[in-house]
């Protein structure tokens, strides 16, 4: 009896951990957590049988089965599955307490069976990402550079295909020197693991002649000892061994298969197997491939930030070296610096890439929100997503969550009509809510489109007048009205509901988006719906800036804020008492940085920079423009945090520091 | 920095198509309607790619390529040769070992852009 009590205690502990993992999973899919869930279920199942808890055993077995599919990538986790499992945890607890919840338990098992049924059809849809193995043998013509082919570029492209191992043959002249002298005398053997197809791999060698390259798919580890391979390269047993080891390491599917000789036997018997079995076999191999693929390591964002900081310093240090070298460079050093540059840039890109996560991790949250909001408001919504694989900086996704949710809430509350009303307007009962995102240039765009009623400008105007934001008799353009909609303290909800109109309005959304240097744009058509477009920078740490000079000090202005620059004499600028310039017929306030910093000597001529940030315009007067620079943004430390007119700092190529100007704050 | 491309082609319509296709991709494109005009563009300025027709008045593609290659700063310049010529050996002989690739006319513009991007890497 004691043992049984102990089991119950332990099982409850495990259930607690299980619950925790499930809630983590709800936040974002994570292979580690899936594994944990699987493990916990397994533990519960394992001992339940021993103590006669048959129902516990059955239920946990079914759940374990479900999560083993998730772990192996056969099934995607979804909200329903998580809800069901969380519910099952409660039932398991009750079962352990001896409560009669057998019927509920059976119900859950039925639901699991339904989920499994639907998965079979879903499985084929998601193209399993399988890592293929290739061997590339490159024998470039000695004078390949003379044909205008950048051989280094070819090698870089190969590296971009996946993970690879380079072997350089006939390296009588050091390869680095071959590259710098642009005479390639070596030849290359490359083992490549890539998700790309053979044709895609071959595309890299588009300009190379047929005699210059061979791409072989590694279908079996025997390739290296085959006669086919011998025709290209004669290898000693040790060399074959080394390659086999390398290939096994790079291509997990190869190591998943047993000893080489056995593989061949299997392959033969496979042909004779009946269709059904073959199908099962295929499923098994994809399982192996899936579970062995990639693998994840969770790293704390702090460590990532540290890495990025170091990489950023490296980027700056490189420009410093280049600066120190000046013009009297020896060609070898120039070459080395160039290489350093390409490496640091690659390192920087990879480091930034680590921080990028697909928008997909927001999907579950958004769907859950839409489900609950539409239920509360009695509306029917069809949610369509596209481009959820678009990647963004992790911190950015976190910052995006609240505004996106707010926009969606608004769309469902104000935009999409009730089903009956939609029918009256000849629209489908279900309102359409579309979420799509894509990359364009240095930006990521996210669009939220609904096919609801559109924004009611009359209502906005009435509300604006009521709130004292607009004047009664005046005509306003749609753009102005949209601006009002996004100004503080504006909410058009007829009554204050839990959904929207809680005092948090579009102004907060706009502010939150602006905080991550994004823009928001609204277009709307009455009766047809609206589109909210968010434009976001790819990362927050790299910034294109204009370098300006004020009394021999350099300052940076984000290029995205600069609308126009021109020169003007100081006498003309300061002719009037009011600090205003006339730009495109509009009087804009300007701030002379010299004056602002308390300097009362002025050069005869200055440069006026028209700043446009979120449709607010002003001008800044500096001495002159130095140039354009891509800088790594660094936040200011605590001492300077209260200085509003600078948003951050950056280190210039010559090692000196420059502050990033937050122009709009100059005027306040 | 956007890359600079010289396009030498005597036939106006195809040249315009090529130029507009490339300009749309954000490249800086310089046009020449024959080889002699094209060779003048290679005055030491930075050029990242030459796209030239084979049959042109004044100076044909093969001569143009030879002239350009003879200039030190363009000895490793990627070159794409456009041709409708069926008898490839003839061309091959003229320019072998000197150019990056031959592109047969007519071509699909998306395919062409892909080739250009590869050549510029």
TrEMBL record, chain A:
Domain HPt residue range list: 1-99
Positions of the CheW-like domain: 542-668
Compositionally biased residues, Acidic residues: 273-283
Coiled-coil intervals: 1-28
Catalytic function, reaction form: ATP + protein L-histidine = ADP + protein N-phospho-L-histidine
The keyword Ribosomal protein is assigned to this record: no
Residues bearing PTM Phosphohistidine: 42
Keywords: ATP-binding, Chemotaxis, Coiled coil, Kinase, Nucleotide-binding, Phosphoprotein, Transferase, Two-component regulatory system
Domain Histidine kinase stretches: 333-540
Record-linked PANTHER family: CHEMOTAXIS PROTEIN CHEA, SENSOR HISTIDINE KINASE CHEA
Name of protein: Chemotaxis protein CheA
UniProtKB/TrEMBL annotation, chain B:
Keyword field contains Cell membrane: no
Domain Response regulatory: 4-120
Keyword Phosphoprotein: yes
Chain positions found as 4-aspartylphosphate: 53
GO biological process: phosphorelay signal transduction system
UniProt keyword annotations, A-Z: Phosphoprotein
Designated name of the protein: Response regulator
